[in-house]
Amino acid sequence: MGEYILKTENLTKVYGTTRALSRINIEVKQGEIYGLIGQNGAGKTTLLKMISGLGFPTEGAVYLFGENASTNGSLLERIGVLIEVPGLYPDLRPYDNLKLKYIAYGMNTKEYTQSILEQVGLAGVEKKKVKKLSLGMKQRLGIALALIGEPDLLLLDEPINGLDPQGIIEIRDMLLKLNKEKGVTIIISSHILEELSKIATRFGIIHEGELVEEINKEELLEKTKDRLEITTNDIERAVAVLEDNLNIHNLQVIDNNTIYVYERLEESGDINNELLKCGIKVNSLSVNRESLEEYFISLTGGRKRV
Asked: What's this model's pTM, rounded to 2 decimal places?
């Protein structure tokens, strides 16, 4: 990964008496796909608006490409944005929707318009009116509009919301292609962690306007991998048996009654027998995996803003 393309510094947004964002500090490297995770109303859209210049922070700063965005408005020209729903002209063709934005950018070449349509998989429907396109195709066209001007950073707010499974797969594959072949850095927000885990390389988890955690994909998968969960009233002796008798060291004591073991899961029967042989009562023993959604809920469930 390259240098940081985006940094926010204590980014805060207050609407009247409502604090929509509170001291957000995120970092996105060039070439990353950054997944912004949060429930509806968590502050994802507000954060993307602050980054894109569509809103102004109450406090804090946004740094783009190493410069303060508030002092250099030209930096925003290097960002493509699709926030909420794309602004499309329903009675025009996809080609004409793109052409209008190209003209506004001082560009108007048929070849360039066609290449964008091909990039987002709309080359076969460029002559249809937008109102006759599926929701997935309209989302593709919205992304195509965001790509005008060859942005280095693409901001996408819930681009898979409301799509059917096939539409989600198509958008996902398209974004991966843009990232790998065109080198576009992408920030994509969603409340569906399971889906974002298939595309994002790094995650920022937001809850009630606060950044709860920043974590890369490898760390996230490590925290949600398969494990053997053992509950017993004799934790200290159980750990000693696991380490000394069975040479198991990849384990974690969760609380006064629970141990997670991350190795030799296929030997759960032998592990149980050894604990029993040593006089340790096992209350329960099972192989489990915490889903990504469960992990998200464990971070945000019941969490209240101070």
From this structure: 0.79
